[in-house]
């Protein structure tokens, strides 16, 4: 499977706050990649950087050979008009203009992309609404007149109307009830299976990714700490932070013998003040941290998918009852 999106050494800094640090990851054509991490870990910033809406200080983002970070002015606008990469916002209420009807919202991208024929636009809007499971009769409603689940799908419809090749969905189900949530997740899997769309799903909730993602990338403090096939990561997480996430989510836990309390930070071992900016970001909370974790940040390579100096080894330590 070829890589369709390549993020290489990405650094994003807001004012003087470094939000993403030396982040590299690849998204393969036709897969669903889950991106997980706690609030503030940089998930939204990563997606925004891909669509040119975050201040990239260093690194490169390449989509199918096009260096997106090098695009400026007319070249950037021309690229956006192709609609190949679509970002579905985290917060539907804020992302939707309350004065615009559903039809107008879904048609927005099409107009920008240069589709001017009214009949063609109407047909595409109806098809997109049906595709995301919405009744086309909702086309005349305003965002305030439909439910949260419907608003989420309107955002998705706006994106799929453009036939994107890559869809970045930011917390697409976190505000939804169980039935809407399953529907949206199935829809994303359908887009991958039937239309070959590559999908990145951002979530702070592992259970929503477990059923649909092919691979998962784990962010902590703006760095990638682990990535791999989701089943493998769920059944044998190698980074202590990923292990804590899986241990805290019983519904997705596979055969996981480690109790969450064993993975929780032990303050006496990990005084936060001892850890500097060049350290592993998880070191201040990690019960397995040693001086090596503060002298240099571990990095993930292509083959090595865990950024932890003690990847795997901490398991033996736990098993031996050392802690
Ligand atoms: N426009 C901005 N200006 C300044 N700081 C920002 C901006 N956008 C994000 N940040 C900071 O960057 C960090 C990462 O934010 P981001 O929104 O990417 O996190 P997230 O992983 O998406 O969190 P959540 O799960 O809450 O959505 C946070 O500390 C946030 O305060
Ligand atoms: Mg976010």
From TrEMBL:
| A single MF term (Gene Ontology) | ATP hydrolysis activity
PROSITE patterns xrefs: ABC_TRANSPORTER_1, ABC_TRANSPORTER_2
Task: Give the keywords, sorted.
Answer: ATP-binding, Nucleotide-binding, Transport
UniProt domain ABC transporter: residue ranges:
5-246
A GO biological process held by the record: transmembrane transport
Key word Transmembrane present? no
What's the superkingdom here? Bacteria
Q: Which family does it belong to?
A: Belongs to the ABC transporter superfamily.
Full protein name? ABC transporter ATP-binding protein
Q: Which organism is it from?
A: Dactylosporangium aurantiacum
């Amino acid at each position: 499977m070829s890589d369709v999106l390549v993020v290489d050494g990405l650094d994003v800094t807001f004012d003087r706050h470094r939000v993403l640090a030396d982040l590299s990851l690849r998204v393969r054509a036709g897969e669903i990649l889950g991106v997980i991490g706690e609030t503030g870990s940089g998930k939204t910033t990563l997606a925004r950087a891909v669509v040119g809406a975050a201040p990239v200080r260093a690194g490169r983002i390449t989509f199918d050979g096009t260096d997106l970070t090098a695009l400026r002015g007319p070249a950037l606008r021309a690229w956006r008009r192709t609609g190949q990469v679509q970002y579905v916002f985290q917060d539907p209420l804020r992302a939707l203009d309350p004065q615009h009807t559903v039809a107008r919202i879904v048609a927005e991208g099409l107009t920008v992309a240069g589709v001017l024929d009214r009949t063609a636009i109407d047909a595409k809007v109806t098809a997109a609404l049906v595709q995301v499971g919405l009744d086309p009769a909702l086309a005349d409603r305003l965002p305030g007149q439909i439910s949260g689940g419907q608003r989420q799908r309107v955002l998705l419809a706006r994106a799929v109307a453009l036939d994107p090749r890559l869809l970045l969905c930011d917390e697409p189900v976190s505000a939804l009830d169980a039935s809407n949530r399953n529907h949206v997740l199935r829809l994303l899997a359908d887009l991958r299976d039937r239309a070959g769309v590559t999908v990145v799903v951002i979530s702070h909730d592992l259970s929503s990714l477990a059923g649909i993602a092919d691979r998962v990338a784990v962010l902590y403090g703006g760095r990638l700490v682990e990535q791999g096939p989701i089943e493998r990561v769920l059944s044998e997480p190698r980074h202590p932070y990923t292990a804590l996430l899986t241990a805290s989510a019983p519904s997705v836990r596979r055969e996981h013998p480690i109790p969450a309390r064993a993975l929780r930070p032990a303050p006496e071992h990990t005084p936060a003040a001892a850890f500097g900016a060049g350290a592993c970001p998880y070191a201040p909370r990690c019960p397995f941290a040693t001086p090596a974790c503060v002298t240099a940040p571990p990095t993930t390579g292509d083959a090595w998918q865990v950024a932890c100096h003690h990847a795997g080894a901490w398991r033996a330590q736990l098993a031996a009852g050392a802690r």
